[in-house]
Every structure is written in C-alpha cells, then in structure tokens.
Amino acid sequence: MNRYKGQLRILVAVDCIIFGFDGKDLKVLLIQRGFEPEKNKWSLMGGFLEANENLDEAANRILKQLTGLEDIYMEQIHAFSKVDRDVAERAVSVSYFALIDIARYEKQISYDYHAEWFLINEKPDLIFDHDEMVELARKQLQFKAAIQPILFELLPENFTISQLQNLYEGVYKTTFDKRNFIRKLMSTGLLIKLEVKDKSGSRKGAYLYKLDKRKYNAKLDVFFNYIHDRSELAQQN
C-alpha cells in the first residue's frame, strides 16, 4: 500500500450535538466522559473515525453506540481543526447535529454512558471546543429552520400552537407575542387544524395541529419570509 512519506498522521473525530424538544423546552443531550483527559466532565457524543467507514457512517455508529438512537435526522455542520483543540493528541473533529422529539425516543435512549438532557441555555461547561460546537450548531439550526421544515423533526406529528411557539422561542432565543405569533403562523396556511384537543395541560385543552407538507413545498417562500424576520431577531440576541 502506497503512503505519503513524511506526512503527520492526524486523528479524525466525529462529535454529535443532539437537540431534543420535550414540548416545552429545547434541550441538548450530553454524556460524562469516561476516560482521560477530562474524565467525568460533560461532553458531546463523540468518537474517532474508523478505517472502514466514512464520516456519516461514523456519526451514525457513534450515536447508536453511545445513546442507542438510530434512524433520526442528522446533518454535518463543520470541521474543527485548531492545533491544540484536543490536549491528548492532534485531532480534527467533524461535527453533526441531530434532532429528536424527546417523548418519541425517550425509551430508546441508552443511559449506559450517563447521558443526560440539559436545557440548552443551562448546560454545563463542556470539554475542549464542544461549547463552540453547540453554539455553531444552534446558529445552523436557526438558518436551516428558515428554509426547511426541519424543526418539525423535534415535534410530535400532532402538536399544539403553544408547543410550536415554545420550540421557536427556544431555537431563536427570543420571546414572541402570542397573538402575533399565531396570526402570522396561521396566515401561511401551512398548518392543518385537527378536531382533537390536547387536554394534558388544562381541562379546556388546546387544539392539535399538523404540518401540511404538500402546501409547505408549494409555499416555501412564504415560510422563509416569515422565519426570516425571526432570524433577524435572533441575531440581535
């Protein structure tokens, strides 16, 4: 096998930022690192690329190994390559973010690696450059949510307007006026109101909705213009 002579061998790692939504709050799934350096400190789900796999395969393997999760929405974000980012050895890390509805996957998550959900705004300090990864993932999520319906990956198929508003406020780090939020959201014509109520929060209950995916694809520009205003708000925070 031919090799490039005189070239440094560098480790390639994969780190996964797993965002979850429980109907009220946006959260991130973290684990306690089980080995040195930084043993017992909080970390993203991560591991090293193996010789027989590509980056996507590594991300899926690591996610399943550390959490038990598979077949969920996941997307590559960025490569982190500061020379001193890992104190043990020179390593480049490629980050991914994943989106899940916590209620749907709660029973599937493995807690063998001390996985724990944290409120996105109240997470502990993370090892290496993992805090930077989380922040960049959140910005990427804000951007992608403006042009694709990916936030609905965080919601159950049927959801309330309050749940949707809580989600967008968590992602964009802002607070929306409820009446204005509902008015603008309903003006898009992209939500289907169901004749069923969620009564878990009150006796009166709240109507459930679902996304009309057919209309969404046909009226993508409407949704983009609506969320674009929210993105500008987020940039100010």
Structure, explained:
This protein has 237 residues and is of the alpha+beta class. It folds into 2 domains: 11-145, Nucleoside Triphosphate Pyrophosphohydrolase, CATH 3.90.79; 150-235, Winged helix-like DNA-binding domain superfamily/Winged helix DNA-binding domain (Arc Repressor Mutant, subunit A). The radius of gyration is 20 Å and the shape is elongated. The longest helix is centred in the middle third of the chain and has 16 residues, at 130-145. Mean pLDDT is 87; it is low at 230-237. The chain is built from 7 helices and 9 strands.
List the helices and strands and how they pair.
Blueprint: E1 11-21, E2 26-32, E3 42-43, E4 45-48, H1 55-67, E5 73-80, E6 91-101, H2 102-105, E7 116-119, H3 130-145, H4 161-172, H5 178-187, E8 191-198, E9 206-211, H6 213-218, H7 220-235
Parallel strand pairs: 1-6
Antiparallel strand pairs: 1-2, 1-4, 2-3, 2-7, 5-6, 8-9
The tally of helices reads 7
Give the H and E element order: EEEEHEEHEHHHEEHH
Morphology call? elongated
CATH topology of the largest domain: Nucleoside Triphosphate Pyrophosphohydrolase
Instruction: Report the CATH superfamily of the largest domain.
Output: Nucleoside Triphosphate Pyrophosphohydrolase
> Could you list the spans in which at least 5 consecutive residues all have pLDDT below 50?
230-237
Give the CA-CA distance, first to last residue.
53 Å
Largest sheet properties: 7 strands, mixed
Helical amount: 25-40%
CATH architecture call of the largest domain: Alpha-Beta Complex
Number of DSSP E strands: 9
Q: What portion of the residues fall into strands of 2 or more residues? A: 25-35%
Mean pLDDT, rounded to whole units?
A: 87
Number of domains: 2
Which structural class do you get from the secondary structure elements? alpha+beta
